[in-house]
Design a protein that fits this description.
The protein has 406 residues and is an alpha+beta fold. 39% of the residues lie in helices and 20% in strands.
Amino acid sequence: MPEHRITEPILHVDMDAFFVEVERLDDERLRGRPVVVGGVGRRGVVASASYEARAAGVYSAMPMGIARRLCPGLTVVPTRHERYGEISEQVFAVFEDFTPRVEGLSMDEAFLDIGGLRRHYRDATTVAEAIRARIRNRVGLPASVGAATTLYLAKMASGRAKPDGIHVIGEGTEQAFLQRLPVHELWGVGKATRKRLAAIGIETVGELGQVPLNLLRFHLGEASASRIHRLAHGVDERVVTPDTGAKSISVEQTYGNDIEGTEVLRTELLRHCDRVAWRLRRAGLAGRTVSLKIRLPDFTTVTRSETLPASTDVARDIYRVCGRLLDRSGLGEFPVRLLGVALSGLQRADAPRQLSVQGGEGWDDLSDTVDSIRLKFGRGAVVPARLRTPGSETPDRVPAPGDGGL
C-alpha cells in the first residue's frame, strides 16, 4: 500500500492587510472602518489598506492625497515598523511550530513546505486550517493560505483565498486552473512583456502554452521566453529555501520637503548611519557592503555601493563610505526626495574578521559604551555632535518616516 502523502505540499501564507490589522489589534475602534496605514505628510503614500478602503478604490503605494479623495471617511494611521516587526516574529513562530522549512518573502508572507507533515495531517487543507487557527488564537490576526504543488501556484492560490480564507489548486488541476488566466498573472509578465504578447495575439495563459518556444524567443528573448513558457505549463522547479537570517539592514527616509546641499545631505547621512549601526549591533551583526540610495524629486533613483575589506558595525566606518559614495554620485548639490543607507553581506558580529590596517578597536569600544548608555537612558542620551543642533529632537523621540526595520 503506498505511503500517504500531502499532494499539495507548498503553502503560501499571506497576512491580510497586515499593518492595518496590527493597528486594529491595538485599537478596537478601527474595526469595520476604512483604514490605511502610511505616511501622513504631504508626500505620504499608502503602505497598507483595509478591505473597506479597498472597496473605495484605495490600494497600497497610492499617494495619500488621492486615497483621501477616493474615500472621504478614511482613517489614516502612521506606520509603526517596530510594532509590526514584533507581531511578525510571533506569526513566523507559528509557522515554525509546524515546519522548519519556512521561506519568508516579507514580514507578512511566507512559503511553507508541509510535505513532512503527512503523518500528522491528512491533506493541505487541514494543515492550512490549523495554521490559520493558531495564528488567530495566538496572535489575533486573520491570514489567507494558498496550497499547491509549486511555489508560484501556491502564491496565486493565496490571492484567491483573500480575505481570511483557504484556496487549494489540487494536484492534476494545474493546467485547468492556468488555462483561463490572463497572461499578466504569471510571475514576471509586466506591461512590456504583456504588450509584446498581445501583438502576436496572446492574451491568456492557455494561448501562451500553445505557442512554440522558438517563436516566444524571437519576440521576448531567450531567458524571458523560457521562463514564462515553463510557468505557462505549470513547471516551477524552485523549492522552499529556509531563511538564513536578514539579508540586509537599512534605513531610508522620504522627506516632506526636498533636502538640498552637500552639508545637509551629509548630516542626514550621519543620522542614517548612526541608526543602521545601532540596528546592526542590536541584531549582533556586521556588514561589508555599504549602499547609498538617493531619489530625486522626479523619482529618478540612484544607488551606489562599496564593499569593505572587513565587516563593520561602526557608524564612523559606514559614514566614511557613504561620504565617498555621495561624492561619486555627483548629486551632492541636487534636491533630494529620499535618502537611504543599507548594509549587506551580513555576518555575525562575533565571527572572526580581517584586521584593519587603520585600526578600529577604539571605535568598537566606544560604540559598546554608547550602546550601554542608550539602553539605560534612551537613544537620545548620546548622539553624534553634528546631529545635536539647538532645538533639534533626539532620534528616539522622533522616528523618521519610512525607516526600514530589521
